[in-house]
Amino acid sequence: MSPKLPVVKARDLVRVATKLEFVFDHQKGSHAVYYRGKDKARVVIPMHTGQDIRTKTLEGILDDMGITVEEFRRLLRE
Length: 78
Prior knowledge:
Mean pLDDT: 93
Number of domains: 1
Radius of gyration: 12 Å
Shape: globular
CATH topology: Metal Transport, Frataxin, Chain A
Helix content: 25-40%
Order of helices and strands: HEEEHH
CATH superfamily: Hypothetical protein
Number of helices: 3
Distance between the termini: 25 Å
Low-confidence stretches: none
Strand content: 15-25%
CATH class: Alpha Beta
């Protein structure tokens, strides 16, 4: 069984993405696109102010980032 995902806001995801060398590329509406040049990975983060990121959305974003829930929790604490 996989560990439970934490409840996070968009700003928390942006902080973790930045630690993983993702850089802001552009924004279309309420979705910000971050890009990592070394492996051409792309992450889309919904930027809905004050709202938590939904569980399934967070799972997809972590998959796009190439990290596990444990790694994500560790990066959140740093």
